[in-house]
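Data follows
____________
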Amino acid sequence: MCYATQARVAPPEGTDVVLFDVLYVVVAVVALWFGADQFVTGASRVARRLGVPGLVIGLTVVAFGTSAPEFAVTIDAALAGQSDISVANVVGSNILNLGFILGGVALVRAMAVSRTLVRRDGLLLVASTVLLLVVALDGRLSAVEGGLLFASLLAYLVALARAGSDGAATATDQFHAPDVGRLLVGLALVVGGGHLLVVSAVDIARVAGVSEWVIGLTIVAAGTSLPEFVTSLAAARAGRTGISAGNLVGSCIFNALGVLGLAALVNPLTVSPVGVEGTAWLLGTTVLVVVLFYTEETLSRIEGGLLVALNAANWLLNLL
């Protein structure tokens, strides 16, 4: 059991521990969803007041905000020595983003994407997944490899900042306390919710006899991917499918390079054989998505259904 389990209030004697852990998972997911929403809102407003370009806000602040649950959960699990949950959360979240969420949004409305997203961000997503698979092949993510992943993310952010510098807005130099308050409250909820989700997920895996990898790939990944799902679905319903695609691709890049990179820097991670296999499946899904984008610069409803079906098959194979 991880070190933080004792920090929780123990359930009354005679009650089913699993039921309480499920309740904790629900509370944690709500905290993650609400916290990420407040974080994105507050950070976006602060960034605009600083004169940060809209493109950079979308691909950095929003992408980071929706990836904040993955950051909190993955780093918390790494500190607790739960490497399978750390790796499975990132791999599972990216598979969910590109399968259930991206495919599901396309089922709601065919998704048009820009050439820039396909040629720059899409190809970078493939490259980042390839890099993740290469460093994981030896069964370990060292601090040096984590630093390489994180440095790659920083280089990407610098490139985005330069690309968006021409459209920079004028800074107002005026801060509103509610914006800063939202940012801080959202961050606190994400960190607290992520911690609670890891603790509860580990307990469920132990009691139910399910591997931590499966729990991380399903329950934890689904919980931390809620912000991406809500943001992308809302954008699709409003007819802004480009935002949906950009948010999901940006979040996946943050997850692969930033989340696991920082986690390995904090505490080197072991990668089980099933983790390597899961990363290989993620690479296949990533390549398929970019190819589907590139062929017609549109993700149709049929193609969205294909991605959802593949994601469902992956879940089924891991649960069996």
